[in-house]
Amino acid sequence: MKEVPAWLVDEGSTAEMRRMLSSDSPVDIETLAARARAITLRRFGRTISLYAPLYLSNHCPSGCAYCGFASDRTTLRRRLEEDEIRREIAAMKKLGIRDILLLTGERTAVAGFDYLRRAVEIAAEEMPRVSVETFPMSVEEYRELARCGCTGVTIYQETYDRGRYEELHRWGPKKDFLHRLETPERALEGGIKTVGIGALLGLSEPVEEALRLYRHARHLAKTWWRAGISASFPRMRPEQGGWQPPFNVSDHQLARMILAFRIGLPDMDLALSTRERASFRDGMAGLGVTRMSIASKTTVGGYDEGETGERGQFDISDERSAGEFCQALRNRGIEPVFKNWDGAYNGPATQIIPTGGLKETIP
C-alpha cells in the first residue's frame, strides 16, 4: 500500500452512517437505541463476553504525544519476566478471567518479537483465548504467534486523519501511517483468527473519525469475511504527560456512535473498555456493546503484585472488581461470559482467504 486506499475515503457509501452520527441528525438517539437493542438481542442474545489486559512491558521507542508510555515520559521502565508472567496469569485466573489481552509498547530490543512469542506460549498454557495488542509485525511473525496459540490481534490506528497522525506521532516506528493501516490484514494473512480495530477518540474530529473507522471495519469484514472483526471506541483519558485532546467526545456522541455501528455492522463485536465510567458501561450493555474489559490494570503487571503506586499508560474509570461488574450485568438481565472459545481451536487459521479489494487506491 503506497497511497491511502479508496475504501477509507469513499463518501458515497456512508451517507446513512453520517446521518446517524451527526449531532444534528433527524434520527433521535432513542430511535437508534431501540433499533440497536433489537439487533443486539437477535444476534448476540443477553450476553457480554469479558476479557482483561495484561501489560507485559512499558518500554517504548516512540514519541506518541498522547501516551503515558511515550519515550520522553519519566515512567519507570520494566518488563515482566517469565516467572512474573505466570504469577500474573494465575492471579487473573482467580478472578475468573479466561480471555487475556497481552500488551507492550512498540518493538524494542528489551521487548521484541521473541519476548512476545514466549509470553504468548506461557499464556496459552493457561488461557483458552490469547490476544495481543503490541507493535505491527510481518505476516511470518503473525503466523508464528498463531502457531504459539495467539488467536487475536488488536491494533488501533489511533487516528485515521493522516495529517493529524503525522503530527501526533513525533518520532519512532509508529510514524508510518500506511504500515499501521495494513497491519490487521497482515495479521489475518498470517493466520490470526480475529482482529480488533479502533480510533482513540479525541485526537481528531469525532464524526469524521467514526466514519473512517466504520469504512475500515466494513472493508475488513467484506475482504476477510471468514475472520472475526471487532471495533472499539476508546476515549482519551488522563495520562502522566498531561497532554490535552483537542476534541471533546461527549457521552451522548459516544453513545450515538456505538448505536450507529450496531445498526450498520449488525454481526460485529463492539467493545467498550474500563476507560469509561461504570454508569456509562452499564447503560450501553445490551444496547450495542458485546465485549467488555474487566478489573483492568494499565500498569505492567498489577494483578499479582497489587497496587505499587506506579501510574499506568492511562487512568481507568470503571474500577469495579470482576465480581461487582458481573453482578451489575446480572442485575440488568445480562449474562457475563468468561469463556466463549476453546483452546482446542487454537492454531493458525488455514482457510481465511481475502476476497479482493486490497489494491484499491485513490485515482
Helix content: 25-40%
Shape: globular
CATH superfamily: Aldolase class I
Largest sheet: 8 strands, parallel, barrel
* Rg for CA atoms: 19 Å
Task: Give the key terms.
iron; 11 helices; 9 strands; TIM Barrel; disordered C terminus; 363 residues; single chain; 8-stranded parallel barrel; ThiH/NoCL/HydG-like; alpha/beta
Structure described in brief:
The protein is α/β, with parallel strands linked by helices and 363 residues long. It has helices at 15-21, 29-44, 82-94, 113-126, 139-147, 162-168, 177-189, 206-223, 251-264, 278-284, 322-331; strands spanning 47-55, 99-103, 129-133, 150-154, 194-198, 228-232, 269-272, 291-293, 335-337.
How would you describe this protein?
This protein has one domain (15-339): TIM Barrel (Alpha-Beta Barrel), CATH 3.20.20. Helix content is 35%, strand content 12%. It is built from eleven helices and nine strands. The chain has helices at residues 15-21, 29-44, 82-94, 113-126, 139-147, 162-168, 177-189, 206-223, 251-264, 278-284, 322-331; strands at 47-55, 99-103, 129-133, 150-154, 194-198, 228-232, 269-272, 291-293, 335-337. The chain has an eight-stranded parallel beta barrel with strand order 1-2-3-4-5-6-7-8, surrounded by six helices. The model is unreliable at 357-363 (pLDDT under 50).
Describe the secondary structure blueprint for this structure.
Elements: H1 15-21, H2 29-44, E1 47-55, H3 82-94, E2 99-103, H4 113-126, E3 129-133, H5 139-147, E4 150-154, H6 162-168, H7 177-189, E5 194-198, H8 206-223, E6 228-232, H9 251-264, E7 269-272, H10 278-284, E8 291-293, H11 322-331, E9 335-337
Parallel strand pairs: 1-2, 1-8, 1-9, 2-3, 3-4, 4-5, 5-6, 6-7, 7-8
GO biological process, one term: thiamine biosynthetic process
GO molecular function: 4 iron, 4 sulfur cluster binding; iron ion binding; lyase activity
Domain Radical SAM core: 46-281
